[in-house]
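ugh ok fine here u go
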Amino acid sequence: MKMMNNRKDNLKKQKRTRNLICAAFCAILLLIIVAVINLLTGAFSKFFPASEKLQDLVDNLKPQTTDTESITPAETENDTESKYLFTVCLDAGHGGKDIGCDNGSRNEKDDTLKMTLAVGEYLTSQDINVVYTRSDDTFLKLSKRCEVANNAKASYFVSIHRNKGEGSGIETWIYSDADEETTALANNILSGLESVGIQRNRGIKKGTQKSESSDYYLNKHSNMPSCIIEMGFINDATDNQQYDDNKDAYAKAIGDAIISTYNTYQAGKTDSNAEKADESLNSTEADTSTASGTSHTISNTPVDNVAALDNTTQDWGPGSNVDDQNRPVSAISYQDKYGKYNANFIAEGDHKIYLTFDEGYEYGCTPGILDTLKEKNVKAVFFVTEPYAKDEPQLVQRIIDEGHMLGNHSVTHPANGLPSQSIEQQQNEVMENHQYIKDNFGYDMHLFRYPAGKFSDQSLAIVNNCNYKSVFWSFAYLDYDVNNQPDQTEALNKLVSKLHSGAIYLLHAESTTNTAILGSFIDQARAAGYEFELFD
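structure:
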């Protein structure tokens, strides 16, 4: 009996196997038939118009898809031209790992996405084609955002953000050399939002916070009129309340402003505004241009025969001996000796001082430092490692956006310094971090700070040949031990007592003491007749 049951089971298995083989064979045969018909109709259609009916049959046999990538560019453009009046690209600032600014549990990336989708929904209802750089919580590089707008040949590019700091109200940012249409777009948006109700109209601003002659990446690299909207301060309760209560009204006001601008400047024209400029993101200018005016490349004179240079490790420290101008004697001496490698131990400029911050990891102090610098209108250099940039993209982007200089502090921050590594490893410490920042933030760094201040003639030449300037310092103190922070009063007195022309101050951004005394130091330095400059 048991044997009979086993035999029945075997027969059933064999039958299922045969059925599967038959099904697979039929599927393969069907695919072959479809392929043959495709070939035949492709050949016959040139001579027999009736073959189009056969092609229809083939199309009906093909699996249907809703994947937009299966639509050809020509079909997409034709559909857009027939259905929509014009195209607008909307950008929700930040996203994914980049939260933007925040206030408690409230993140900029979430606010911008909600408003952007609301604006898009309204524009779509008005027969405007809307292209989003992101429609979910996704991180996109600035270069990719511009690429989306430019590839869509949009008539306008509008990016929505939130502000943070001391202040309230809404402002717009446009290209430093903006034309009449771009200015009108920004003005129409502000007027529309003001009619709904805002705390303060902060006006149209050109360039960046650093200067009107520099530009934010999105405005600089878009081929059409573009505008960045700072939709109120995320740390202001009233701005947040208005943002939430008036979301749909704000979205309509922005949409109507875009339509009004189009009706004034583009309606009825035959050639698209997006095609008026033949500017490619792959051009040399785009590769070396800036996100905020502080990013650029330099071309150093190469040092030959680097392998033959002395690689003895030297530990930099300015010491306590100063000249009659309070300048460290060793800094002046080293500047004379190593300046040929584009190394900087002390800077030029009568009563000019330069702030630099080293960023190996985040200890919660950088936002406060940036707030103080913004309040005091001072720019600084922030030297970041690659792990820091990966862990803190929103802070890196804020540094760039607020007009500060981004510097290279290596990939791994080797404790024994660059000279402890091979020539190839030293080059990689510089260039891997350089490429990561360029790929993810559209920013070219050109200033390098040596981990632990350890260098050699060979390492100076290597950094020079990477087209970087080496930046040391003429003042530093023990501020980096987070568990043993210096007394604030003593630290402030020390910083002020070391003031000298061309001073390069090295401060660690993880220091709570530095964060607390920074504003007072800036005030006292200015009172002593010194001016703060951005090292470049």
